[in-house]
Structure prediction request, 161 residues.
Amino acid sequence: MLNSVELAAQVGEALKSKKLLLTVAESCTGGGICQAITEIAGSSDWFDCGFVTYSNSSKSELLDISPSLIAQHGAVSEEIAAAMAEGALASSEAHIAISTTGIAGPGGAVPGKPVGTVCFGWQVGGTTHTERLVFGGDRHSVREQTIVHALDRLLRHLKEV
Prediction:
């Protein structure tokens, strides 16, 4: 399996070939996706910007997510992941978005959402896709698996555009 930087390079090639710009909205990954992307020389050709919205208030302020939506579904939900991706697009010049929100651990678990729960959002070609997974391992491992999965799935979605 490819690592996050190798996947980011493939994402970049796909975006460049389609003349598309990417934006990222991250919570549990804390900028890790942006870090992988900006390891690639020339990523400014296909990467617009990233939002690290760790707190609920930053999700509302920077991505225009209604506090009532967060209260209704919880910050770690597919609904919020979708809203994060859509908000990042609306707040950027990008055409494509990735979002992540989750519980990397070691604490933070709530009923129905154990440590390792991550919700993803991808806004590609005018369609928002979401997914919820539960990863094993420690905090570092959960975050790394999240970054790799977010980029890998984006590659798959880009093939459909």
User: Anything to note?
Assistant: The first strand starts at residue 22 and ends at 26. Helices lie at 4-18, 32-38, 56-63, 67-73, 78-90, 139-158.
